[in-house]
Write a structure and sequence with these properties.
44% of the residues lie in helices and 11% in strands. By secondary structure, the chain is α+β, with helices and mostly antiparallel strands. Helix 4 crosses helix 12. It is elongated.
């Protein structure tokens, strides 16, 4: 381990950052790397028979203690107090493990809900030609259920979902945009009817791409000019697709046609600008751009969620509604799910979920070489009094950490209860 010094436990004092050289399951501390907060923690480490630890100077608030005398080596905390402290820490560690299990069950449940929503989307689109009424009604029911959950819970969490199957890219993107648009609409205090309208429009905004030949849509080489022009027609193709569904609300049509239009007139397919774009069109464009940046397109490489937010904030001031950009940042957090971070504790992790009421304290899946990957600790930063030091590009991670955290190749989200 870089920048560490092996020292006697007797040289450690409060404020030192240390690494314990034993398995995670063989000590009562929640982490094997931490900053010492009290003398009783040092005495507890001694009571475990640990004689040496790794000292991290760069993360410590204090220097090592001068080599102590024999008398000073005695524990300052009495045995009864140590036993009580160890019992309390063992219980807390057990509780945290149970909390992690509960969170993983919640993630699994949310992922199952997301998969069910994908199935409904596929079914709805496949029905558009033969049973358009059923197709639209199925989608409306799904959006209505999502809206009910959004409006009835004050403790919603945005979760990072599993990897995307290649054949589901359009569906995943559309569901991502729908979920995020609805969350933003709630944050903006839009009415239930407005939340449902943008959710429904977002679900169908990209279905025109299903009309584009796969050899063009999936082409790996740069597109020629005619192919680029064809791709740029997909918003209008989506509208034509929906014309056969006379129960699809006309109010949702503009946002489908305009989800690539920018306020400065530089978008497509019509180059509309400013007041020519209604609030639904302006909101879906913000979310669509964010998700495209996160997941990449034929012409752009995927960015981390954190980098995508920063890129939009810096480069789209004249293109996107800045109120809605600010709402996106406030809703999904400064470190959205999928962000890879380094913590103040020196550990690396990936943001797994964000509570929209506590966006500065996301839940992080930690890299810990001493813990099996499938049991990787998921921690609440607020509770552990740990902060995010910086966000990292995936390319900056060492290979062992990269394999352990397995950052998603493509980002997809689901909403669940906190």
């Amino acid at each position: 381990m870089k920048n560490t010094v092996k020292v006697s436990i007797d040289e450690i004092q409060v404020g030192n950052f240390i690494c314990l050289p034993v398995s995670w399951k063989d000590h009562p501390f929640l982490f094997s790397r931490f900053k010492v907060k009290s003398q009783s923690q040092i005495d507890l480490i001694k009571s475990l028979g640990i004689e040496t630890v790794l000292f991290v100077p760069t993360k410590s608030d204090t220097e090592l203690r001068d080599k102590p005398t024999k008398d000073a080596e005695k524990a300052l905390t009495d045995t009864a107090s140590l036993d009580k402290l160890k019992l309390e820490m063992d219980q807390y560690k057990h509780d945290q493990i149970e909390t992690q299990k509960k969170l993983r069950r919640g993630l699994k449940k949310t992922e199952q809900q997301f998969d069910r929503s994908l199935s409904i989307m596929r079914s709805s689109i496949s029905k558009l030609g033969s049973r358009p009424l059923n197709a639209v009604n199925d989608a409306k029911d799904m959006v209505s259920s999502m809206t009910t959950m959004l409006l009835n819970s004050d403790d919603l969490v945005l979760h990072l979902m599993g990897d995307v199957k290649p054949g589901d890219l359009i569906y995943h993107h559309s569901l991502n945009v729908s979920v995020l648009c609805m969350m933003l609409a709630k944050s903006l205090n839009w009415s239930r009817e407005e939340i449902e309208q943008i959710g429904l429009g977002a679900l169908f905004h990209d279905i025109g791409k299903l009309k584009i030949p796969s050899n063009v849509l999936n082409k790996q080489a740069p597109l020629n000019k005619p192919e680029q022009n064809l791709i740029k027609q997909h918003p209008l193709m989506s509208l034509n697709f929906l014309k056969i569904a006379d129960t699809f609300p006309e109010e949702a049509n503009p946002m489908i046609a305009n989800h690539h239009e920018f306020l400065d007139g530089s978008g497509y397919p019509k180059g509309l600008k400013g007041d020519e774009l209604d609030k639904y069109s302006q909101l879906i464009t913000v979310v669509n751009e964010y998700d495209d940046l996160c997941n990449g397109t034929k012409t752009t490489k995927a960015k981390t969620p954190y980098a995508s937010l920063g890129y939009i904030y810096k480069n789209y001031k004249d293109k996107l509604n800045q109120e809605y950009v600010g709402t996106l940042i406030k809703t999904i957090g400064i470190y959205p799910p999928g962000s890879v971070v380094e913590l103040s504790s020196g550990q690396f992790g990936m943001v797994m979920s964000v509570n929209i009421n506590k966006i500065l304290y996301p839940q992080i899946m930690l890299y810990d070489a001493l813990v099996p990957k499938e049991q990787a600790p998921i921690i609440d930063l607020e509770r552990e009094e740990i902060s995010i030091a910086r966000c990292l590009p995936i390319s900056a991670l060492p290979e062992n950490i990269l394999k352990y955290l397995s950052p998603r190749e493509r980002i997809s989200y689901g909403i669940g209860q906190g």
